[in-house]
Every structure is written in C-alpha cells, then in structure tokens.
Specification:
single chain, 95 residues, mainly beta, Leucine-rich repeat, LRR (right-handed beta-alpha superhelix), four-stranded parallel beta sheet, 6 strands, 0% helix, globular
C-alpha cells in the first residue's frame, strides 16, 4: 500500500475559519499560502513541516493572533522571520 501524499492544499481550506489546529506534515505541498492562511483566524497550532513550500514565510501567518505553535522545518522558506514579540505565548518550533 502506497501512503497518500497531498501535493496541493485544498482550495477551500481557508473556509475552515473555526479550525484551531492544522497539521499538514510530510506531504509534497507547495504553492501560495497567503491565499488561505490569513482566513484561519482561530488557528492556535500550524504544522507544515516536511513539504515543498518556497520563498518568504507568508506574512499572513504572523497576523494570526491566536497562533501559539508554529512548525516550519524542512521546507525551502527563505528570508527573515518577521517580528513576533507581541505574542506572549508564541513558540516557533523547528523554524
């Protein structure tokens, strides 16, 4: 049996506005997260490790005021991590 691996983020994932945890680790995801991540305003934990995202870390992630845990490792992000000092309980794991 071959494990299933997502290659694109489902187009209407941003409609899950009440979602608090999103784990998309170990897929082959790529593309523009700005299109959907900013809509998920209740998100407390985002884990997108081990995918194929490239470019700068989407700035929309850092406007998610309830986000407490962020996992970004093993992608091809580049550039600075925006300031997040206004988040008292924020943890960036394997960023």
């Amino acid at each position: 049996m071959v494990p299933y691996s997502l290659q694109i983020v489902p187009p209407n994932i941003g409609n899950l506005r009440q979602l608090t945890t999103l784990v998309l680790n170990g897929n082959s995801l790529s593309g523009n997260m700005e299109d959907w991540i900013g809509n998920m305003t209740k998100l407390q934990e985002l884990s997108i490790e081990d995918n194929k995202f490239v470019g700068p870390i989407p700035s929309a992630i850092f406007s998610l005021t309830q986000l407490q845990k962020l996992y970004l490792a093993n992608n091809e992000f580049e550039g600075p991590i925006p300031s997040i000092l206004h988040w008292e309980t924020f943890n960036c794991y394997r960023c």
